[in-house]
Amino acid sequence: MSNSSETSEVPINPHTVGVAEVIPGDLVALSAGDVERQRWYVVTHTLPESPETIRMSLRPPLGGVDRDVVLGREGTVTVACHRLDVAAVPRLSSPPLDDVAFRDGDRVGSVRAVDPRAVEVTYVRRWGAWHRDLDVCAEEPVTDSEVRGWARDADREGYVVRHHPRPAREAAAGGPRRVVVTGLGAVTPLGVGVDELWRGLLDGRHGIRELDGDEFGELPVRVAGTVPVDPAALLPRAAARRMNRAAQFAVLAAREAWADAGFVDGGTRESGLAPERVGVSLGAILGDASVLVGGDRKLREKGPRGVSPLTTPMTVPSQAASQVSLDLHITGEARTVTSACASGTEAIGQAIDRIRYGRVDVALAGGAEAVVTPAIMASFASMRALSQAGLEDGRSPSRPFAKDRGGFVNGEGAGVLVLEAEEHALARGARIYCEAAGWGLSADAHHMAAPDPSGSGVALALRRAVRDAGGHVVDVVHVNAHATATVEGDLAEAGALRAVFGNRSTSGAVPVTALKGHLGHLQGAAGGVEAVATVLTLHHGVVPPTVGCAEVDDDVRLDVVTVAPRELPGSGDLALSNSFGFGGHNAVLALRRMGRERVE
């Protein structure tokens, strides 16, 4: 298809002339209606047909098929300009596409050839539909039958349509490695283990409980998402005494993920792995705030000798990562990420990159937190961030995206993924849940605690995650939302999702769910646990419902899954897990389901 510089830049200066005055090279319109619709033709040839008539051969200025018209000599036409180079206007036809087998990655170009200033529009086929822009979903996609119809009607309507099959894919030499998820572990308010988490999500149960300890008695809010068993009872006593509560959660979740990935109890050596090729990457805000509070209490009650020497090593947020490293004998690295409530998701993203670029082959990544303490609860209550709803009506007091939401519910737990270089996983015959395809970060730079109401920072992180995954917005099939059930936060996230997904945000193409109605807000662990749930959503093809959301806020305008689980849509392969934190930290994880053809 040609857009010659001469025809695409011609001046349009309409004026009426007699038919007998027209010569080859003139740009003409045959009627006033054609002038109004910008329907022009280059005269390629003129020939007297009779003493009273002239035969003209006409061709669309941007290329196309010729047509002949016979006009009376005494008639008039409109000329836009003279002396175009007829040889520069290609003679071509739009081939029929009825028997062409379309494939994802094919392109179709369409240009309105009768308009000299028209610009070719290109559509790309992805997931069985044609999209004008794979990352801006402002228009509905086009079907195969519509594209075939364009080609059939093109010559008659003055268009040129061209089909460009996708090029043969060449194997990439070198470059980043593909990262996959091979193991999952979780300790949450729904119970210990991934099975308890997944069953509770699908059943629509929540794990939010009344805090009945004396230390919580004077607090204005006394509900939280607490783990229903003592994690210390599930670990050897000597080891548990050297771990804070968050580290205990982390070790239990890491052990489950390690075993789920097919590795042997005990750690790297027992599993035949080089310890230096395995890493740990965990997110935490404080880890376990109770250790420092308890040390301070003993100092006041018993003096310096009453303070345990373990107080300091058990207080640091990095304790969870170091204890997982110790427990499984991992020497590659043990990193801790602290970026408020985005910590767990960012820790997973950093682990993806460490594997991609060959620093390690395997990583345990996620988050762990245990901050259901009186001081933290009191602080959140003073911020008016906590939900005031109780447990009396049977509904979860945490109500993401709901019309009657009133704040978040504090929680605790841990979620850990085993990430692995794909070739490493395939070489040992591992079961692969999905691909850990990419991640994105951004910062709001707006307020120390409140979200940017525009959602622009969130939208940036969403787009970066999709791009890092090598995908497009049209590939996204599900979003696990951060949605803490605060009024401002939910609306900011909803606005960002609408901005990124356009008309797909409400059409059912991108079902959204939020898990904080089930679990409360697990702080630095939220990203890890929600990533586990997103992996399971892709793996099982089922989206859990959003508990606590009896009626979606009218201003949210998303396809929020409520009441019951829903089957995951088939057109697309990326799921996003969102995490946003105080201070404007935004992190988004992109996961890709397996078994779907990837078109670059």
Describe this structure in words.
With 600 residues, this protein is α+β, with helices and mostly antiparallel strands. The chain is 26% helix and 24% strand. The protein has 16 helices and 25 strands. The strands form five sheets. Strands 11, 12, 15, 16, 17, 18, 19, 20, 21, 24 and 25 form an eleven-stranded mixed sheet that branches. Strand 11 (179-188) and strand 12 (191-192) form a beta hairpin. Helix 10 crosses helix 16 (526-540) and helix 13 crosses helix 14 (487-501). It is elongated. It starts with a helix and ends in a 7-residue tail after the last strand.
Notable characteristics:
600 residues, alpha+beta, eleven-stranded mixed β-sheet, six-stranded antiparallel β-sheet, 16 helices, 25 strands, 26% helix, disordered N terminus
Task: Record the SSE blueprint.
Elements: H1 5-8, E1 15-18, E2 27-29, H2 32-36, E3 41-48, E4 53-59, E5 67-72, E6 76-81, E7 107-112, E8 121-126, E9 129-131, H3 144-157, E10 159-164, E11 179-188, E12 191-192, H4 194-203, E13 208-210, E14 223-225, H5 237-241, H6 245-260, E15 278-283, H7 289-302, H8 311-315, H9 319-328, E16 333-337, H10 343-356, E17 362-370, H11 374-382, E18 412-421, H12 422-427, E19 434-443, H13 456-468, E20 476-481, H14 487-501, E21 512-514, H15 516-519, H16 526-540, E22 542-543, E23 566-567, E24 574-581, E25 585-593
Parallel strand pairs: 15-16, 15-17, 20-21, 20-24
Antiparallel strand pairs: 1-6, 2-3, 2-6, 3-4, 4-5, 7-8, 7-10, 8-9, 11-12, 11-18, 11-19, 13-14, 17-18, 19-25, 22-23, 24-25
